[in-house]
Amino acid sequence: MRKKTMGLVTLVLALSFFISACSLFGKKENQQVYNKGKEGQWVYSQQKNSPTGDQKRATSYSKRPYEGKDTGGDAVSERVESKPALTPYLFGRLRYKVVIAEFQDNTKKSRQSFSSTVMEQLSKQLDETGAVVVVDRDQVKKILGIVEGGSSVTPSSLVKLRTLLGIQGVIVGTIQDVMVGTGKKEKTEESMAITKIDVRVFDTETGSVLKVIKSENPIFASHTEGALSQDKAILNAIDFTLRSVTDGILRGLAGLEWSTSVASVDGDKVYLNAGKLSGLKADDILEIYAIGREIRHPVTGLSLGRLPGQLKGTIKVGQFFGLDAAEAKIVSGREISTGDLVKIAKQQGH
Question: pLDDT by residue (tens digit) across 63-82?
Answer without folding.
Answer: 333 333 333 333 333 333 44
